Amino acid sequence: MVVNLDTITHDSLMRDPYPTYERLRNDAPVAYLAQLDQWWITRWDDCATVGRLTGTDALLGGHIIDREFFGGPSVLTMDGPKHEELRVGIDHTLRPRGVREFTDDIGRQVTLEFLEKIKPLGRADLVTDLFEHISVRVVGNRLGLHDVPESTLVEWFHALSGGLTNLDSSEDLSGRARRSLTEIDDYMRAKIGQLAATADESLISHMIHGGVPEGQAPRTFDDVMPSIRVIILGGFQEPGNAVSNAFLGLFENPEQLDLLRGDPDTYSSLAIHESLRWIAPIGVVARLTAEEIEVAGVTIPTGAQVGLIVASANRDEQRYAHPDRFDLNREKQSHATFGYGDHHCSGHFLAKSLGEIVVEETITRLPGLRADPNRTPDVGGYLFRGTKSLPAVWDV
């Protein structure tokens, strides 16, 4: 079935894609969006079925725009041995035990530092004044970017996000993305050269050296830079967006905010899990068909761009009761936010582990935390969706 974007507009998706996703799940669960030149798959079962094909002869990772924007084959678009070897390096520093030790130490320390800065103020925008800074600082430290100020890391993330989702071809967004890409490359070229000569325990160092076949030289700038750009965009945003969206849901449901306040140990992890289901920070997982596939009785041709709409799958009525509701006491089920198969997000445990700590410490350290009654939140996006602004007040 062909769905014309004259009726599904970019603006409506950016404002709130969920009514469109519901319509597609009901009327056209496997649909070709002509103006995007992309097939969208919106139901849980169908997304999971196609997701399991990733890395096979039938389905390849990524979208052609990913390759163009990030500058070559990356962890998103690679398949086969090259992808497996690179994932060895990436995954080494993101294993659960190491991540937990890192977040319990560095993650909690950074969180408390930023909370202490804003605590005397009694009001702040939790996203721009707190969660974004914690997220990029902690993830940046894990990458090995200790010497890059968090304000610069925030700008890199926003610039790349705006450039990749710039469907209206805004020159302002394109120019901002180009400037940041140049700045990132200039910094990383020197950094990668240093780490190629002298390895350390950072994620970037393991990307250069980890999983390299015996007898081969370390990976070069060109080998790892596209994947580093991917990590800067996706990795920087996931923990911050997960926490921001959690508190958006909690502020909209004060009785659930009270549950968290009364028992942070229990409800912090539940809040992050439900947040990641309720609003997936990255709502679309892109794939490319290497051969013709059939999904729910619909044939998708060879060479087609496919979008697995994980944000829609996470609200499929056939899987979740009252899926549009943010509910800490929901029966715990897996969600599709971190993707499928060989391309399942390496940083999922870091995002969840850091997110739980930030939720716990924020509700504990800011007494009487609640939504600012005089200002409204700002939520937007569909490829990357999140709470952009979340004004709050608390007791001083």
Topology, element by element:
Layout: E1 2-3, H1 10-15, H2 18-27, E2 30-33, E3 38-41, H3 44-51, E4 59-61, H4 64-70, H5 81-92, H6 96-118, E5 123-125, H7 126-143, H8 150-164, H9 171-197, H10 203-209, H11 221-252, H12 254-262, H13 264-278, E6 285-289, E7 293-295, E8 298-300, E9 305-308, H14 310-313, H15 348-365, E10 370-371, E11 378-380, E12 386-389, E13 391-393
Parallel strand pairs: 1-2, 3-9
Antiparallel strand pairs: 2-3, 4-6, 5-13, 6-9, 7-8, 10-13, 11-12
How would you describe this protein?
This protein has 396 residues and is of the alpha+beta class. It has one domain (2-393): Cytochrome P450 (Cytochrome p450, Orthogonal Bundle), CATH 1.10.630.10. Helices cover 53% and strands 11% of the residues. The chain is built from 15 helices and 13 strands. It has helices spanning 10-15, 18-27, 44-51, 64-70, 81-92, 96-118, 126-143, 150-164, 171-197, 203-209, 221-252, 254-262, 264-278, 310-313, 348-365; strands at residues 2-3, 30-33, 38-41, 59-61, 123-125, 285-289, 293-295, 298-300, 305-308, 370-371, 378-380, 386-389, 391-393. The strands form four sheets. The chain has a six-stranded mixed beta sheet with strand order 1-2-3-9-6-4, covered by helices on one side. Strands 5-13-10 form a three-stranded antiparallel beta sheet. Helix 7 (126-143) packs across helix 8 (150-164) and helix 11 (221-252) crosses helix 12. The longest helix is centred in the middle third of the chain and has 32 residues, at 221-252. The radius of gyration is 21 Å and the shape is globular. The N and C termini lie far apart (57 Å). The mean pLDDT is 93.
